[in-house]
Amino acid sequence: MYATRSLRMFRPTARLMAPVPKEEQAAHTVSQRLRRLRKIPAELWPLGIVVAFAVGAAAYSSLRHFLTDKTIRLKRQNRAADNHTEHH
Predict the structure, then answer these.
(1) Where would you find the membrane-spanning parts of this chain (predicted)?
(2) Rounded-to-integer distance, Cα 49 and Cα 27, Å
(3) Using an 8 Å Cβ cutoff, are 84 and 77 in contact?
(4) pLDDT 10s digits, 41-87
(5) Is the pTM of this model over 0.70?
(6) Which residues lie closer than 8 Å to 76 by C-beta, 6 or more apart?
(7) Cα dihedral across residues 63, 67, 69, 75: positive or negative
(8) How far apart are CA 73 and CA 58, in angstroms?
(9) Which residue in 35, 14, 15 sits closest to 25, CA to CA?
């Protein structure tokens, strides 16, 4: 008896029958992870540096603005008025 089309659909493919590869990140030490940095393509290093600088500059600028600008309201003020409006 030959396999019909409907039975052929449920056969596992050759890719699924292969063993699952081991994870590359499983139980690596810090030095092993640092060695993996060499595998990053050279074209991505300038992009990473620019993005890291932009994120750092944005964090510095925001933090400096929050700490030096006295007109910015970071906390609620006049709590008694807020509680009064909630009850009505």
Answers:
(1) 44-63
(2) 28
(3) no
(4) 989 999 999 999 999 999 999 999 988 988 887 777 777 766 666 66
(5) no
(6) 82
(7) positive
(8) 20
(9) 35
